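Need the bound structure for flavin-adenine dinucleotide, inputs here:
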Amino acid sequence: MDALSTRHGFPSEKARDRGPAYLAADCSEHNFYAIDRGLRDLLPLYLAPRDFRALEPHFDRLGRLAGGRLDELARIADKHPPVLNPRDRFGRDEDWIDYHPSYREMETIAFGDFQFHAMSHRAGTLGMDRPLPAVAKYALQYLFVQSEFGLMCPISVTDTSIHLIRKFADQELKDYLLPKMLSGDCATMWKGTQFMTERAGGSDVGAIETMARHEDGEWRLYGDKWFCSHADADVALLLARPEGAPTGTAGLALFALPRRLKDGSRNAFRIVRLKDKLGTRSMASGEILLEGAVAYLVGDARAGLKQMMEQVNLSRLSHGVRAAAMMRRCLNEAMVSAQSRIAFGKTIIEYPLLRRQLLKITLPAEQSLSMFLFAAHAMDRANAGDNDAALRLRILTPLLKFRACRDNIPVATGAMEVRGGNGYESALDFAERVAAEPALEANARAAASALYHATSAVVMTWEASRPGNDARRALLARLVLDMKLSAKDPLQPSRRDWEREGAELIFAGRKIALAELAGLLDG
Ligand SMILES: Cc1cc2nc3c(=O)[nH]c(=O)nc-3n(C[C@H](O)[C@H](O)[C@H](O)COP(=O)(O)OP(=O)(O)OC[C@H]3O[C@@H](n4cnc5c(N)ncnc54)[C@H](O)[C@@H]3O)c2cc1C
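Answer from helper R.:
Posting the output first, comments after.
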């Protein structure tokens, strides 16, 4: 935040004459890595020193791109959404989707330059002699999404499709798909996606009606997929019911559906319509009609959903990271605005009421940063064989997805407005009771929130206590306790004396020592 405050000085009297200088500045042209004190402090904590040293230039480079060229491209792509061409000029069902060149340039950055899709599967991306740790991958996703959200869906779903094929497909299918999917050559590579949702079933996956028939030695799919993001991907992983299989989730098998057959001809499915969405407008989501399309069985035909849930869980984690990224962008925009907008003769950050609003934006943004890095670190440990970390990751993933995505909404609203330990034990107790007693199911969201808040407070306190780290995270942990885990009487004013002093330190553009927090962490 220090970098934000120094760049935006007050407008000169001459500039004021031109009117626009009255308006608050924004974040464009900042380096989103350089201005993110929390991220810079925490990465050395969660990454091995040699990985941090090797990757820091790439965090910095992506931070610059995210505040610069990527941000420009994202704005243009959002204004020029993809267009479906259902037929060619001879009336053939050769459907294809046109994208604006700005979207294509973003693809080149993501799939060609950074190779997000392949970075945790093979050596050779970003100059590394081995796959990147999950902490680094998600930190890079976090920087990218601060400018472009829509493209992160194809990036992430290609990455997670590769994971499923590597883990479950037979050798022949691996040999066919992986070299194309792991390629960094944008002109020839195959990108992945995931089609599950049907009209009959979104959450209720067991209601899926798509049928798989074994005809002349190959699987052919018949059905209608209702919400297919990255609709024109080169290969889609999907669930279908082999003829004669039981109803419900037990009868679903996992298939890989290529867009083109081995002879180069179009596979027998059509994109019949693109969705008119509120968000993620740069990326094409569509409806897919399967008309006897050739597909390859992946793994065990009786474990389709179980296998697919691995992809769903990886997507959930990435969604939590994306929410954290969007909150960070909102926070940065709010801070720049608060530091440069003048109302009633002062910059608006000087008003206590506005500072409280900024704290309310800061807190969930910082919580989600700690929570996604902690979860990604658990993934790295789980991948290295640590069973406890694997169990931790199972809980952290849905908590992060649920809470960060929800917090993103008031944070965005709050940021737009600016532009315009006691509870810890009881929170865990609460979650355990709700999990154990079916009659308490209606409390599930409240219990998940309590668990998220309590975990983030503990993680941030631990982060603050590490030698040499910025102690402001301990203040944020105290704010979690006060704002999220304490009972309040809405009819009683609160003095919040510590909060005023705490806010000074949270918004100070320098590293805070633990000793400076004396008297601010208790009471
Ligand atoms: C932008 C976007 C992109 C998408 N991309 C894809 C994609 O690429 N691939 C894909 O397969 N799908 C995709 N989807 C679809 C998405 O996965 C489904 O919308 C989602 O699974 C919910 O299913 P549904 O829409 O049928 O809603 P429903 O399942 O009908 O749910 C409606 C409401 O009921 C609630 N509900 C359902 N069951 C319960 C229960 N047991 N207890 C309490 N509440 C319940 C839900 O939380 C929801 O609020 C996308 C959706 C969006 C918005």
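Comments: The radius of gyration is 25 Å. The chain has three domains: 21-188, 192-302, 325-517.
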